[in-house]
Amino acid sequence: MKINNSLSSKIKGISFILIIMVIYVHSYNILTGAGKSIFLVTDNTANIAIFLQNIFAQGMFRSAVPMFFAISGYLFFKNYRSIRDYSKKIRNRFKTIAIPFIFWSTLVILIYYIAQATIFTNTHFTSAYIRDLGVYGFIEAVFLNPYNYPLWFLRDLMLVVLFAPIVYFGVKKITAIWFISTIALWLLNIGAGTKLFFYKSEAILFFSVGAYFAIYGQKYLNQRMSQNTLLYLAIIYILVLLAKTYMMMLIDTNLLFVISIMQKIIIILGIFLLWNISDYTWISKVVLTNYTFLFYVFHEPLLMLIKKVCFYFLGISGISSIVIYIISPLVTLTFLFFLGILMKSYFPKFTFIIMGGRV
């Protein structure tokens, strides 16, 4: 059964919103690359900048990646019935995920190489010199720890897709045990980063959630929640978000686990709210959805460069931090939008390949 046009438009519209959220996560600018505050003196405007960016970049917008995994799981397991379907979907994902991943990861390394070779930019890059990487270092920079760091999502997605039959078995045959286990690992931060071999707790859990809706919960995807219920949930969401952000400002290590749990509540509520609020908004009618993937794969290192240039001219202050946080993604998106138009106009076939058919 194919996805109906209404649901397809909804998913495309939400995916566009999610990538905007991801870019604003990466626009976070109150810490240096070494993890230290950019502010020599923390005055009122600096505190406002920290609070606002923690609300959005470290709070509200953190629902984006888990929701992307859920959507990916749903799309993968839609019409999934046997190992034959798995083989077909793997071949398809090679075109839609692996080829774009390799191209855009390698392209950014090339950009870094050229930038590091120039007199004016080599001191502005903290990454190792590309020319000194060696064979293993180059492979690591492309596949394992991409210099184009947002591509870690595609890297993890490829891993999850390879183990899709295990996910399918867990969701379909041992549903309760599977979700109790994956939720527990996620809540306890086990499998975050590289703590548990290849296991990625967030990726596995939300990919499984998408699989569940593809297998069992199709009817729920087309149901509308009442606006009153959404309002109550939104109030709870905002209260938890504000409380969690305030606790972050306290910088108390004893609160880290509580903050972590609150963030996960924010993620779940955020996904739930965005999915349902989209039924009452224009999200499904966004006209830029054809550029969503380009915005994702190439917003870095452009966004980083724009932030650096802005701070160079505006200086470091609470006000400049807020302004740069807001405008840097807008400049990035504008540039990529016109780049996308040029690519589709002059190199349509090549663009089709490197975008995984998303044009």
UniProtKB/TrEMBL annotation:
<feature type="transmembrane region" description="Helical">
    <location>
        <begin position="282"/>
        <end position="299"/>
    </location>
</feature>
<keyword id="KW-0472">Membrane</keyword>
<keyword id="KW-0812">Transmembrane</keyword>
<feature type="domain" description="Acyltransferase 3">
    <location>
        <begin position="16"/>
        <end position="337"/>
    </location>
</feature>
<dbReference type="InterPro" id="IPR002656">
    <property type="entry name" value="Acyl_transf_3_dom"/>
</dbReference>
<comment type="similarity">
    <text>Belongs to the acyltransferase 3 family.</text>
</comment>
<feature type="transmembrane region" description="Helical">
    <location>
        <begin position="12"/>
        <end position="31"/>
    </location>
</feature>
<keyword id="KW-1003">Cell membrane</keyword>
<dbReference type="GO" id="GO:0005886">
    <property type="term" value="C:plasma membrane"/>
</dbReference>
<protein>
    <recommendedName>
        <fullName>Acyltransferase 3 domain-containing protein</fullName>
    </recommendedName>
</protein>
<feature type="transmembrane region" description="Helical">
    <location>
        <begin position="152"/>
        <end position="169"/>
    </location>
</feature>
<feature type="transmembrane region" description="Helical">
    <location>
        <begin position="97"/>
        <end position="115"/>
    </location>
</feature>
<keyword id="KW-1133">Transmembrane helix</keyword>
<dbReference type="Pfam" id="PF01757">
    <property type="entry name" value="Acyl_transf_3"/>
</dbReference>
<feature type="transmembrane region" description="Helical">
    <location>
        <begin position="51"/>
        <end position="77"/>
    </location>
</feature>
<dbReference type="GO" id="GO:0009246">
    <property type="term" value="P:enterobacterial common antigen biosynthetic process"/>
</dbReference>
<feature type="transmembrane region" description="Helical">
    <location>
        <begin position="255"/>
        <end position="275"/>
    </location>
</feature>
<feature type="transmembrane region" description="Helical">
    <location>
        <begin position="198"/>
        <end position="217"/>
    </location>
</feature>
<feature type="transmembrane region" description="Helical">
    <location>
        <begin position="311"/>
        <end position="342"/>
    </location>
</feature>
<feature type="transmembrane region" description="Helical">
    <location>
        <begin position="229"/>
        <end position="249"/>
    </location>
</feature>
<feature type="transmembrane region" description="Helical">
    <location>
        <begin position="176"/>
        <end position="192"/>
    </location>
</feature>
<dbReference type="GO" id="GO:0016413">
    <property type="term" value="F:O-acetyltransferase activity"/>
</dbReference>
